[in-house]
Amino acid sequence: MTGPVFIDTNVPMYAAGRPHPCREAARDTIRGIVSGHIDAVTDSEVLQEILYRYFAIGERATGLAVFDSFAAIMKDRVLPVTEADAILARQFADSFSNLSPRDLIHLAVMKNHGITRIVTADAAFDTVDWVRRSDLQAVAK
Questions:
Q1: DSSP-derived secondary structure letter, 78
Q2: How far apart are CA 108 and CA 92, in angstroms?
Q3: How far apart are CA 141 and CA 109, in angstroms?
């Protein structure tokens, strides 16, 4: 068994969003999680990121709907962000300057939980040698 795959923020956002080349791949991923074909986890930072992004672009109601839907789908599969995760993210910042602070948090959560796979359109994760990325953009082509 390979263990769960981490679901990044852009998956539920593309799935719920306007037409985009990644939308169907994101929807397929969500359907796979719901059906049980994809063993998936995420972290609490992903949920925060959904709210932050939608609120920042003035789409509060949409953000709340996407949050509610994804939180329900991921019920009991949302990992907390701990002090140990934050400290490891800081350590990763020296090695992975191409990753955003939020991505560093996701990476630390993944490392601390032994997760080596991620579904995301974010190619920055390709620079992490122990992470295998399922690319929404490649699936969409």
A1: E
A2: 8
A3: 30
Q: Spell out a b/e string for 97-125, using b for 16 or more CB atoms within 10 Å of the CB, else e.
A: eebeebbbbbbbbbbbeebbbbbbbbeeb
Nearest one of 52, 49, 65 to 17, comparing CA atoms: 65
Q: What is the mean pLDDT of each run of 10 residues along the chain (141 residues)?
A: 90 95 94 95 98 97 98 98 98 96 98 97 95 76 40
**Six-digit token string for 7:** 């679901």
Is 0.85 topped by the overall pTM?
Answer: yes
Radius of gyration in angstroms for the set of CA atoms belonging to the chain, rounded to a whole number: 14
With both helix axes pointing from N to C terminus, report the angle between 101-112 and 44-56 in degrees, rounded to the nearest 10.
160
Q: Tokens at residue 35, please? A: 């059906």
